[in-house]
Amino acid sequence: MRRDALNDLREFESEKLITEDDLHRGQDDLQDLTDNYVKKVDEIGDAKETEIMEV
């Protein structure tokens, strides 16, 4: 999904539907969103690992 969204942003910019600044802002927002979800998955994994180790 991330790759598709990034490709869409680049396509919009090449078709002049968005500006270069909008492209960069969109890329930054997409990266922030991705980083947040990776962090959440890591936290869930760590919690599950702790739970398993207790048993």
* Share in β-strands: under 5%
Low-confidence stretches: none
Q: Would you tell me the structural class of the helices and strands? A: mainly alpha
User: What percent of the residues sit in helical stretches (DSSP H or I)?
Assistant: over 70%
Mean pLDDT, to the nearest integer, reads: 96
The gyration radius over C-alpha positions equals 17 Å
Integer count of domains: 1
The major beta sheet can be summarized as: none
Order of helices and strands: HH
Distance between the termini: 36 Å
Number of strands: 0
| Structure annotation, total helices | 2
Q: What overall form do the CA principal axes indicate?
A: rod-shaped
Structure write-up:
This protein is an all-alpha fold. It has one domain. The protein is 87% helix and 0% strand. It has two helices and no strands. Helix 1 (2-14) packs antiparallel against helix 2 (20-54). The longest helix is centred in the C-terminal third of the chain and has 35 residues, at 20-54. The radius of gyration is 17 Å and the shape is rod-shaped. The termini are far apart. The mean pLDDT is 96.
Brief digest:
Helices cover 87% and strands 0% of the residues. The protein has 55 residues and is mostly helical. The protein has one domain (2-54).
Question: Topology, please?
Answer:
Layout: H1 2-14, H2 20-54
Helix pairs in contact: 1-2
Notable characteristics:
55 residues; mainly alpha; 2 helices; 87% helix; rod-shaped
